[in-house]
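Quick note —
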Amino acid sequence: MADPDVVVRAGGPVDVEAICGFGAQVIPDHYAPLIGDEAAAAQVRDWWSVERIGAAVAAGLVVVAERAGTIVGVGQRGTDGRAPVIYKLYLAPEVRGHGLGRRLIDALVAQLPPDADRIRVEHFAANERAGAFYEREGFAVERVEPSPTGDPRRAVVWRARRLH
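Predicted structure written out below.
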């Protein structure tokens, strides 16, 4: 059941610090058991900096889920040059399993041009919970890219969903 107190909206410049703080809080606990402490820390360092998040927000690529003034979810899209891609879709543990992930996907899709015919998503192979979620949301596996580290947990699974 959806939480009526959670608002999904476009991220704005005033949200950048809170989005970065959300990433610093949620990402290590989520990824450390899947890919190790150092790789989890690298995810925060490489992808949740004020510079990266600020640029994505300025480009209109970020949506947030907010409850009582606190960020409880973040979605970010971009492109791989061929199709729109969801690069971030994270929820605070206490709000998972209530349809909020779907709401974030819907908000990201709503931002796409009307002629976009599909959207892609990528996730680590070790993130089986994400894989199952994306499968339920209609994203089919396109390919799996081995990790440059050789760690199979860090292989990247690419999925796509048709929009029309």
